[in-house]
Amino acid sequence: MADRQLTFEIFRYNPLKPEVAPYMQTYKLAETTGMTIFVALNMIREEQDPSLMFDFVCRAAICGSCAMVINGRPRLACKTLTNTLPAKIKLFPLPVFKLVGDLAVDTGTWFRYLSEKTESWVHTSKVPDPKVQEERMDNAVANQIYEAERCIECGCCIAGCATANIRDEFLGAAGINRVARFMVDPRDERSPGEYFEIVGSEEGAFGCMGLMACDDNCPMELPLQMQLAFVRRKMAAYGLGYKEKKRIKP
Amino acid sequence: MSNYQTHITDMLIVGAGLAGERIAVEAASQGLNVIILSLVPPRRSHSTAAQGGMQASLGNCAMGEGDSTDVHFADTVKGSDWGCEQDVARAFVENAPLAVREMAVWGVPWSRVVAGKRTLPDGRELEEKKEKEGLITARDFGGTAKWRTCYTADGTGHTLQYTMDSMVVQMGITVHDRTEAISLIHDGDKCIGVVARCLRTGDLRVYIAKSTVMCTGGYGRLYSASTNAVINEGNGMFVALNTGVVPLGNMEAVQFHPTGMVPVWILITEGARGDGGYLLDKNLYRFMPDYEPKKKELASRDVVSRRMTQHIRKGHGVDSPYGPHLWLDIRHLGANHINTNLREIANIAKNFAGVDPVKDLIPVRPTQHYSMGGVRTNKDGHAYGLKGLFACGEAACWDLHGFNRLGGNSLAETITAGRIIGKKVTEYTLGATLSYSYEQVNNAVKEQENRVKALVNGWNGKEDVYNLRNEMEKSLMDYVGIFRNGPDLQKAVDNLREVYHRSLNIGLKSGGEGPSPELAQALRLPGMIRLALCISYGALTRTESRGSHAREDYPKRDDANWLKRTLAYWPEGADLPELKYEPVTITELPPGDRGYGESSAQPEGGGKKNG
Lengths: 250, 611
Known about the structure:
The complex is a heterodimer.
Chain A: E1 5-12, E2 23-30, H1 37-47, E3 67-70, E4 73-76, E5 88-92, E6 98-101, E7 104-106, H2 107-117, H3 139-149, H4 156-159, H5 162-166, H6 172-183, H7 192-199, H8 213-217, H9 224-239
Parallel strand pairs in A: 1-5
Antiparallel strand pairs in A: 1-2, 3-4, 3-5, 6-7
Chain B: E1 5-14, H1 18-29, E2 34-37, E3 54-55, H2 69-79, H3 86-106, E4 116-119, E5 125-128, E6 149-150, H4 156-170, E7 174-176, E8 179-186, E9 191-198, E10 204-214, H5 235-241, E11 248-249, E12 254-261, E13 266-267, H6 271-274, E14 278-280, H7 288-291, H8 301-316, E15 326-329, H9 335-340, H10 343-353, E16 362-371, E17 374-376, E18 389-391, E19 396-397, H11 409-431, H12 438-457, H13 465-479, E20 483-484, H14 486-503, H15 517-541, E21 550-551, H16 559-562, E22 564-569, E23 578-583
Parallel strand pairs in B: 1-2, 1-10, 2-7, 10-18, 17-19, 20-21
Antiparallel strand pairs in B: 3-6, 4-5, 8-9, 9-10, 11-17, 11-22, 12-13, 12-16, 14-15, 15-16, 22-23
């Protein structure tokens, strides 16, 4: 891989300058050892084009800021090594999300809406009294909650989702996984009926067409297909009136 | 004619990491209107990157038995090398267990005690008791007498931040993300808010509030090799320093983490060593027991970082194109443990260095990690010098950490100090009134407008912002690192002064329209260089070694002359900070031996550059 000359074709558009139509701009860069898209984009900005817009925060695949479409697939730019790609690299911003400029999109507003819509907080009637010993929890349950909470809200599952691309209100895999996180949490007192109000619809668990690009694209390798099946089964059971026999909570 | 949006609120919080959001939750629960400004969506804050855990003396796990707030207090004070405020440390250790339990009710899936016997990697056997099963457990971290670091598998910061933000969402607290505070509005006596720049449109905005709280995190990115997120540029600190009346405390106290991964400097958490990982040299020899027979790899961070640097200087480092490094070995912990409890480490090693820690060694080197210094506040979080200005978390010098912070005490500080200071700011704000003059606000915006115009039009010159930034990073990296000495520090101060003057002549290469990243950097850089000068000039002046501040030419701690805190002010028109000093508050534990390593660790081959 040494001595490769990389050619980046990068989508350019500044919504504040609508008179300039979107276009692709080409940059050349000599590949270095261990180069990631993070390293490459910063080199381009510092040495060739200081106007280029893109987002990075942790650059360690923890924060979810830098998702973009890299050679046709939504991925985290920080953990994409250039030596895993051909010498020609095409970069587009994530679809679905509002464009801030060039490769930067507004995932923050979208995910805050998701949290509000799914009421992503522990619904409890308990008032914390930190002076008394904490309630016990089985470590396996804690791990199960954490598994679903590992989502970093990068938006790859949404950008790659056919339904999300055609239906604005669809919560996507991130939304359904979020609901699953609270369903397995014994501290959350919501009933199956209350969850049904949130995800028992075409915007939620029943909007999915089953293409499973979310599962393929998730950089955290979350079991999104399983989570979707889990939530769908619970919601279908409730919707069909099996609520007396079936219990949502484990 | 100025044309800008104005927002008025009770409390303005700058920074939506854990400290900022914890304060917001406290204020909102008392009925205050709060606006949080953040460079990024809250869940992308650097707080989420803290993998390891937070210290709180719950004492539930077998190795935590007999732990208490007193033991946590002693560890914290020793860790700080007696540089911390002991009344602050006392309040912190008393509140930390409460903060952990509160987060448990709010939704954090803390890892829990599993009853039964197990054998540790070093052969020790322990038994978790049945009566403790299901309570919040803890892991081992450096510099602690007990296992005290509460955690959620490998994502403690992530789960804390997501849970805290869920509270912010539930309470309907307003967050303006992609918004950067670029100056404080004040009259030399009282702070009434900030001028901010929208990072979506580039527009300037005004935020006016009864109280303003800086929770902007650290300044790691002043150094070229830092574990910190790219947004950690010390914004809150230089915005406060720029007022001329607010001092920064102990800026020379910079922590290097022993295990930044070469060459991307991503942090490998202390949990790796806490769980039994070893440090090896080029001969695959485990060298730490030779230097620190008692704590081995788990002495405090400053000690481990120095021992690693010493060992590299003796010629035992592994050569690489990125300079010599050492190895972190966790292979003996087994695939199961690595892929569950240390999964993030496994992923990071695979994704960014192409190594699988189940069978490979991880290349590591001490890397800039944490800023103990920051906006100097009293124990209520109120900044020195301006009424109505507060600071909390890494942005602040509260001062819990003194000259070295213990692993697990930073995450603990965010939510524990957030809890304590949140109550105090709320109290202040409830009793405060809002009055401001239109002229004062307008002048503050005008000043920033003029800065922007000068940069865009190149009125002051055509210096390149990225070149200057690289020169600043290099000066700190080469001359203000792990081991320091007079001549090197003088070089850093001289270089940085020159770079500072040049930074006043920056001109943009791009047009600077809208949310221009080049303009954002150009607006920040002079402030960042001021911080770099506070660090290096403070280090040059402090002629002793204490905690993370290790002078080769003054290797001993000097309590007679230096048991005091540095306060750095930036007078109008200056090109060096003005340094003052204040005594350290000692209420319980008089200065003594830390019990591991020595702050007097004499480097081998002194005089060489930092490796």
